[in-house]
Amino acid sequence: MEDRAFNQEDLPDSTHESSRARTVPVMNPPFAHHPYRIHQPESMEITGADSNDRAQPVPYLNPNLSLSNPRYEDPVLPEQIDRAQQIPSFPPHTVNAIPHASRMPEPPKRNVQMSQNVSINKAPALIQPTFNTPKMHEDFIESLTCLICKDIFLDPVVSTCSCAITICRDCSVKNKSKCPTCRQRTTYQPNRVVKELVGKIPYNCACGTSYKRDDKEKHEKQCPQIIRNCGLCVFSGNRRQLEDHLYDKHYLNIFYYFAEPVQDRVVSRN
């Protein structure tokens, strides 16, 4: 038996006709120059009047959406899925190939760097105490004044009785440790809060010097404007006036006067 090449004409006529019936001529679709596919309904014949110049995208079915998933048992969800599947969309691998595909711009990143002048959750500033009027200043000074010497506290102490009165330490000794209000004998303890407040109050002397309460005694020994008593008579004046008075009336040098007690000088003169 000789081998010969297979030829389609050797087949029976029925086989040849069935193979010809299954052969479909390939036609170039219109607008073939477009890089994406064209959706053409099978029941409509494209003519010059019915064809569109603009290509229509092919509906893309998301394979992840499946009604067999148990989380889609709600009867409302299948309708929503069917509606979502009918929305025309481009497959993910063809979006980059479409020249005119519009993309949503990425939202700008939030600038977390804030200006140095802006503070987060800044609390409102508290009202700072100020002495806007002389009356407020007088009331504050009066609250820091001793009831016995009528001067600003010097080494303040507070009584342990029910009155809790604050006076100077020297005044408590002179008052024989008695409360100036209830007149009962009591003990005293240092008042540190009042001492800190008194230490911040400035004193303005007539000589133009400003000092604190703790430096009052030291300044009075050197201040030329402080008023002093003579000690030998009823005269009183500042340092310069007292110096002239001692030299003219008592024939004393001011350096000698401040070097020794007055009683010793008076006895020595007699």
From TrEMBL:
The keyword Metal-binding applies. Keywords: Metal-binding, Zinc, Zinc-finger. GO terms for biological process: proteasome-mediated ubiquitin-dependent protein catabolic process. It comes from Blepharisma stoltei. Residues 1-35 are annotated as: Disordered. GO terms for molecular function: ubiquitin conjugating enzyme binding; ubiquitin protein ligase activity; zinc ion binding. Residues 146-183 form the RING-type domain. The keyword Kinase does not apply. SUPFAM superfamilies: RING/U-box, TRAF domain-like. Residues 1-20 have a biased composition (Basic and acidic residues). This is RING-type domain-containing protein. It comes from the Eukaryota. One of its GO terms (cellular component) is cytoplasm.
